[in-house]
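Pilot study result, target chain (595 residues):
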Amino acid sequence: MPCSVRFTIQAAQPAAHLFDITLRIERPDPAGQVLSLPAWIPGSYMIREFARNVVSLTAKAGARHLAVVKQDKHTWVLPARLDEPVTVNYTVYAWDLSVRAAHLDQTHGFFNGTSVFLKVHGCEQQPHFVDIRPPRGLKDAGWRVATSLPEAAGEAGAAERYGFGLYRAEDYDALIDHPVEMGTFTLAEFDACGVPHAVAITGRHDCDTTRLVADLKPICEAQIRLFGEPAPMDRYVFLTMAVGDGYGGLEHRASTALLCSRNDLPYAGMDEPTEGYRQFLGLCSHEYFHTWNVKRIKPAAFVPYDLTQEGYTRLLWAFEGFTSYYDDLMLVRSGRISEKDYLALLSKTITQVHKGSGRRKQSVAESSFEAWTKYYRQDENSPNAIVSYYTKGSLVALLLDLRLRADSKGARSLDDLMRALWQRHGLTGVGVEEEGIFALAAELGGPALGRWLRELVEGTDELPLDAWLKRLGLTLAWEAPNGSPGLGVRTAADGDALKLANVYDGGAAQAAGLSAGDVLVALDGIRITSANLDKLLARRLAGETVRVHAFRRDELMEFEVELQAAPADTAKLALAERSSGQAKTLRQGWLAASA
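Predicted structure:
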């Protein structure tokens, strides 16, 4: 007989950040029911050990208490030969204000299923029911529920839209792929290509939701039309937590969890989009594009996911990098930002890649494979050792798109490659093999293109951006925005003090012996603060030697630093003064492309 799995979850002690969860298993495995919690969450490639937040766990068969054996760090085993339903009660601590885990206090509750729902081994493919209960002790708080998890229509106690009650997932994978927000959120709704969409904003804010919806709708529609209607989801929800200072997003099959600064949201009377609002729209666009690219078009290594251990692939440059390319591109294609603004955003991405010497040491294929140990576990030396498969991957996507367009005189583009991936992999559920993107590129643009793409992905040479941007009538220049000599560092304020966060390869500070973590004290006897370092350096010339005092731990040290000229490492894209008609046509097709 099929399994029957039912959860009840309640914000039991909001002030203590505790969710109480009950799991009822009608027909436990007679050999001994195995239960486990994922070690990581899809889309965030780091082992997070969610089981560490399980405070207590007990089990009963009827009125009889059962001995539960902890098999490993995230696995529990119930006794064998149980011939009656089992109830498991456990408590989860939720105090991670991020998009990856769970968070609970008196103002709201949020959780990803990977943090709170145990997998019942042997029952993964069966429907799972979840009864989301109102918070204990906050009956008059006016909380509601926002989630893309379907209501359990036709079942007793079924929830109504945005209400507490019973919800249904088709299987365990679906259960953990619909995050839940509960609280007194602001709600705005719209349709995109006939599909209902909602935005739920938690936290104090003054968002102009009318403006936000007016901007999100064309972005969503542009992406749906890129891949082709109908959209792959029946409904979509943007779950947004507005805080004082924060940024992040995590994709799901029919929703996204977002964290943003409240100042990044649009406000009434805002004329032009602020830099923060453009960034937020880009974040929404990025996570929405993942609805196709990674949630349904997946690396073969993720079909199916094994959430007990690392899942290695060299393809994150395509799944995250291509998504990072399309996120801002969709803003200009949908008319949300100008062509000038888009070129400024693209210039910023080029600059980010160029500033890190790690691009010369690690390929984006290696960066993808080593995400678990390097990209998601960055330290003070990371800019000198690694490259981001997000940012450099987006530039690989740009080059592939531009070359496809230029070589075919506009007949083919990266859009065609994405649509082919959707038809062959997204709609079929067949994972993309490690060589799959290269093979598809060769199919679209010829074997030479496939080999060229492989060199970009697996090599560490500088990307040939200038040559291909010129084909579309764009120029790439390099500037030193601050003419003052520099130390070759990134600093971080620590109160009034200034700490070295990163010391870059080949820079003046590294040559003099300064290290990340050093706290700057004085330059030529003048106190250094977070406000005056740039002013002190502006009065110097490249080649001058200055005396720098700094604390390393509790020891005062002195360094002789020979200042270097400010590097010309800031990219600036612009329209060429003269460009051919073909270049203009290619550029127009690139920035205004439609399916």
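One observation from the pilot: Residues 489-562 form a domain with the Pdz3 Domain fold (CATH 2.30.42.10). A full batch analysis is planned for the follow-on phase.
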